[in-house]
From TrEMBL:
Molecular functions (GO terms): GTP binding
Species lineage: Bacteria, Pseudomonadati, Pseudomonadota, Alphaproteobacteria, Rhodobacterales
GO biological process, one term: ribosome biogenesis
Keyword Repeat listed: yes
Protein name: GTPase Der
Keyword Ribosomal protein: no
Protein's gene: der
Length: 483
């Protein structure tokens, strides 16, 4: 079992920058604006031979009420309680502030062990702040620079005694975030799922649709920051959960507004992080608000997931607030089929993230969509099916040229992708391609999942064979046979 390291400190001292350095990739958003991080973000940290879990936290502030800063502080305090060691960062260029003193007292009382580090200590500007850190009474501080990698050897030496208390702290953890991300690339291709590998889900939607509340309901705890304010989540937060016996890794993403309304740099980074989560996901849950469903931005988000080749499940949230449920259900299904024909047959589940109603149906829909997304059909079945389709509805003959569909095969899964070899692929109209795709959905039980169908020119198997050398004797024998 490896240890857990929580990085804590007031806003804008460089916690996310250090988190990114320890996990070896830019997972957390970083900006000069203070208070970028709001949720707890976990990652697999690596420092020398040590392997551990590292938690990036929101900046600790003095607020203790139910305001947004107060709720952020409560989440950070929770991380302090669950961590084996806390790395308390101060800004060496600013020195020790009154807030740092308050937080130092808090950590002294609640944290099992505290390592003090003065970040941004490179150059002369950080020298005075480094020496001021001694007054906090938390032991000898470390002089580090998360941005430039200075002082990482000192941090390693400080963590080694912690690691000695854990038997397997130097072993790589069983489920590594790198392995999860690398196993599915942005084109949707991937190998067969290894045993125990979690299904990756991205929960996307407009701001204030209830994405974080839904993820908390699945987890059964208040793991993510929620509230009435729109746009609380700023970056894609990944959490792991065993949901009724099936392992999942769920990405909670920032709300996506219309592109014209996204002006601030930080919001652009948040949206970009959400798009990355969609590309790495296997199933995308598009969360709608039942009171204002299928706005243009919802349609764009669903279309984005389809174009990225991800399995899609539509979840309609706040169903507990709807009074005329039967009428609303019929209305939503009609609008879904009309506005999103490219996702025809995709499951639409009514849920209430606040009460937890409908989560069992949502889980079943996600597992089914993931199974279909990984489905493979044998070439023999495909060609028998293709022969039947051609017999019932032969392709058109543009300009009097008959198009022959000769052979069909599935070239990959995730999403299911098929190639049909034919005589004149450029002459096959789009509506006939849609006819074949809809037939595949119907006859092979693949509702909703993106299907890719490509037409290729079929090759003549005899074109490279040499003509036989027919002699006069052969011609004479042929005439005698005819006679």
């Amino acid at each position: 079992m490896s240890f857990t390291l929580a990085i804590v400190g007031r806003p804008n001292v460089g916690k996310s920058t250090l988190f990114n350095r320890l996990v070896g990739k830019r997972l957390a958003l970083v900006d000069d604006q203070p208070g970028v991080t709001r949720d707890l973000r976990e990652g697999s940290g690596r420092l020398g031979p040590l392997r551990f879990t590292v938690i990036d936290t929101a900046g600790l502030e003095e607020a203790t009420d139910e305001s947004l800063p107060g709720r952020m502080r409560a989440l950070t305090e929770r991380a302090v309680d669950m961590a084996d060691v806390c790395l308390f960062l101060i800004d060496a260029r600013v020195g020790v502030t009154p807030t740092d003193r308050i937080l130092g007292e808090l950590l002294r009382k609640r944290a099992p062990q505290v390592i003090l580090a003065a970040n941004k200590a490179e150059g002369r500007k950080g020298e005075q702040g480094f020496y001021d850190a001694y007054e906090l009474g938390l032991g000898e501080p470390l002089a580090i620079s998360a941005e430039h990698g200075i002082g990482m050897d000192d941090l390693l030496r400080a963590l080694e005694p912690v690691a000695e208390r854990f038997e397997d702290a130097t072993a790589i953890v069983d489920v590594d975030l790198d392995e999860i991300d690398d196993s599915v690339n942005e084109e949707g291709e991937g190998a067969i799922l290894p045993p125990g590998r979690p299904i990756q889900i991205a929960v996307v939607g407009r701001p204030n649709a209830g994405k974080s509340t839904l993820v908390n309901a699945i987890l059964g705890e208040d793991r993510l920051l929620t509230g009435p304010e729109a746009g609380i989540t700023r970056d894609a937060i990944a959490v792991s959960v065993d949901w009724d016996g099936v392992p999942f890794r769920i990405f909670d993403t920032a709300g996506m507004r219309k592109k014209a309304k996204v002006q601030e740099k930080l919001e652009k980074l948040s949206v970009s992080d959400g798009l990355r989560a969609v590309r790495f996901a296997e199933v995308v849950v598009v969360l709608l608000d039942v009171q204002i469903p299928f706005e243009s931005q919802d349609l764009r988000i669903a279309d984005l997931a389809e174009r990225e080749g991800r399995a899609v499940v539509v979840a309609v949230n706040k169903w507990d607030l709807e009074e005329e449920k039967s009428h609303k259900l019929n209305e939503l299904r009609e609008a879904f089929g009309r506005l999103l024909p490219q996702l025809r047959g995709a499951p639409m589940v009514m849920v209430s993230a606040l009460t937890g109603k409908g989560l069992d149906r949502l889980r079943a829909a996600i597992v089914k969509a993931h199974s279909v997304w990984n489905a493979r059909i044998s070439t023999a079945r495909l060609n028998r099916w293709l022969a039947g389709q051609i017999a019932d509805h032969p392709p058109p003959a543009p300009g009097g040229r008959r198009i022959r569909l000769r052979y069909m095969t599935q070239v990959k899964t995730r999403p299911p992708t098929f190639v049909v070899f034919c005589s004149h692929p450029e002459g096959v109209p789009d509506d006939y391609k849609r006819f074949l795709v809809n037939g595949l959905r119907r006859d092979f039980d693949m509702p909703g999942t993106p299907i890719r169908l490509y037409l290729r020119a079929g090759e003549n198997p005899y074109k490279d064979r040499k003509k036989p050398n027919v002699t006069a004797l052969d011609k004479h024998k042929a005439r005698r046979v005819r006679d």
